[in-house]
Fold these 2 entries.
Entry 1:
Amino acid sequence: MSDRESRPRTECDPADSTVTVRVRDVNTDSDRVTDLDVERGTVLRDALLDAGLSPYARLTKRVNCGGRGLCATCGVRVRSGEPTPDHWHDGLAARFGYPRLSCQVRVDEPMTVELVEKVVWGGRE
């Protein structure tokens, strides 16, 4: 069973079951923007991976914690619609300007996120 299959999804009213997540990939020449329709309660990391938009660098695509919030390699910048922080890393992110861990962000409202450059981990492809 994959990490995504083992994570519970939140039950919601079918009329309001999806929200839009706008994803900006600032690492491309065209500054590509993709809109995703995401079920409320979905983990942001899972939504990105399902859409073929990896939050990981070249070297961390295979070597990461699998969404457990331990390795800090799936960081994204939340530009609007930022959810309330509830993970220990979120406090550091707010204080020092670090990206949020996409594996610890649940999509409950529309949001805009940026896929950030991963200089330390070999850059994004």
Entry 2:
Amino acid sequence: MSASEPDPEAFLTAVDKLMICDCRLTRLQAGLLAATQLDIAHDSRSFARLLGVPHALVLRVLAELGEREGLIRVTKRDARTMRNHYALGEEGESLCALSGKLEILQTRNGSLAGHSSAN
């Protein structure tokens, strides 16, 4: 997905874990957080290009995440290209840390179940 081509399976697993930890996240919101956590993308245009989604949609998702206090913070805006650079906020870092403690279990019917490895 980036210059070092991270594992798509690891990205999708991170998205699933984030969605288990916070059921309010959409798949795209969780994807943006996961891409930031895994150093896949830290700006809106790169994320849009890598996932093949319109940049305007990524900007909307970024705004939605920004409205939730502390999940993500915009670090730089380019008015000409509308590219937004961002980083995880304090709550975003906590959510990603929590999701990293989950083990994803594949059930017999193929659905995902979350199980915390930390007691």
